[in-house]
Design brief:
Blueprint: H1 13-16, H2 18-26, E1 34-38, E2 47-53, E3 56-62, E4 68-72, E5 86-88, E6 92-93, E7 100-101, E8 107-109, E9 128-134, E10 137-141, H3 149-152, H4 156-163, E11 170-180, H5 184-191, H6 197-200, H7 202-207, E12 215-218, E13 222-228, E14 249-255, E15 259-264, E16 268-278, E17 281-291, H8 297-325, H9 347-359
Antiparallel strand pairs: 1-10, 2-3, 2-5, 3-4, 4-9, 6-7, 7-8, 9-10, 11-17, 12-13, 13-14, 14-15, 15-16, 16-17
């Protein structure tokens, strides 16, 4: 490929082939930082919740020493799952044969195990998983040798705290489940460019951001979205520009591969979390937060507006793309990569698709 040859989009098989998805499950999705839940879900010793990464059932728990740990959700005796959903417990007890584990993962004991010659309970422990607290959001990684989140996503932690000074006081007030009939990468690509925004998202492009100023740039394995807010007389909700130096800005930090922090003008944090189901189904969890989880009419109203406009509009877009990718008439076209970047450029998709290629080592 010469310097003047346009870069073409990925072949359709990346989005339609179940074998590609299987490779992603076994490699990419099992070796990257994935959103598990929020620290408020494990406020007290014994609090736990389950989550899933790359097809693996996992759980997160707060120990008596106030440490947050994560484990594979499987008993080391005969492989029954240990816990469901969320709750509080003093011991992790397997419902199959009542083997019990400390909150730190060590085996407490099992019925009649003392009769087994040479049985050493200290040799039995739940399999742990890497877990990091990232501004109150818990991320896990199945790769025990993975670099830290700060190495993967340089400066993001600091920037989030600057844009949302109260981020560590936040608690989720709404997590909205949005099923999409498309490959997860179709949905992520749609999120990672605003080339389509002015045509397809009139409320977002005219009532929240000034789309003409929109740009996206890589920052480690993060795509950083930046733009100015819309003129105050056109904003779809009120903001106080004097409340914070970033109050008039919109910024988003998409963390490869399945999570994004998004800060609306007025320092309103919301999140996207893509939960993969199979090669052509994904569920997007839209999270909305307020200080201490208190009722906040502005945020509730924004969540409704978002669901009825941008989210609904995107569902139709990505599902149409998935249908098109399954067409024998589709030939991948050239990406619009403007050297000057900006809103009408797909330079961010170029970066994203390179990560996608690397994700299946092809």
């Amino acid at each position: 490929m010469t310097a003047n040859t346009p870069i073409r989009s990925l072949d359709a098989r990346y989005y339609t082939d179940p074998e590609v998805f299987k490779q992603e499950q076994e490699g990419l999705l099992a070796s990257t930082w994935q959103f598990a839940g929020h620290v408020s879900q494990v406020e007290h010793p014994g609090d736990y919740f389950t989550f899933e990464i790359a097809g693996e059932s996992l759980f997160c728990v707060r120990t008596r020493d106030e440490e947050i740990k994560a484990f594979y959700n499987v008993c080391q005796h005969r492989a029954h799952q240990l816990v469901q959903d969320q709750g509080n417990t003093g011991l992790i007890v397997c419902p199959y044969h009542s083997w019990s584990y400390e909150l730190t993962g060590e085996l407490r004991g099992g019925p009649n195990t003392s009769s087994v010659p040479g049985f050493d309970k200290s040799s039995v422990c739940l399999t742990s998983v890497r877990i990091e607290n990232f501004c109150g959001f818990l991320f896990a990684n199945l790769d025990p040798h993975a670099n830290s989140m700060d190495e993967w996503f340089p400066n993001v932690r600091q920037e989030l705290c600057e844009f949302v000074p109260h981020i560590k006081q936040l608690k989720p007030i709404e997590w909205i489940e949005i099923p999409e009939r498309c490959n997860w990468k179709v949905s992520v690509e749609n999120y990672s460019e605003c080339y389509h925004c002015q045509l397809n998202h009139p409320t977002f492009a005219n009532g929240i951001v000034k789309a003409s100023t929109y740009d996206i740039q890589p920052q480690g394995y993060c795509l950083r979205h930046t733009t100015e807010c819309q003129n105050l007389d056109k904003m779809s909700y009120p903001i106080d520009l004097d409340s914070n130096k970033h109050a008039g800005s919109y910024s988003s930090w998409y963390l490869w591969p399945l999570m994004s922090f998004q800060v609306y003008p007025g320092n309103v944090l919301n999140t996207y979390h893509w939960r993969t189901l199979d090669h052509e189904h994904v569920v997007v969890w839209r999270g909305w937060y307020s200080i201490d989880g208190s009722d906040a009419k502005l945020i509730h109203d924004l969540a409704v507006q978002d669901r009825e406009t941008t989210v609904e509009e995107d569902i139709h877009l990505v599902e149409s793309v998935q249908r098109g990718l399954n067409s024998r008439g589709y030939v991948p076209g050239p990406l619009v990569v403007d050297p000057k970047c900006g809103v009408k450029s797909e330079h961010s998709v170029k970066v994203l698709q390179q990560w996608m290629r690397e994700g299946i080592k092809q």
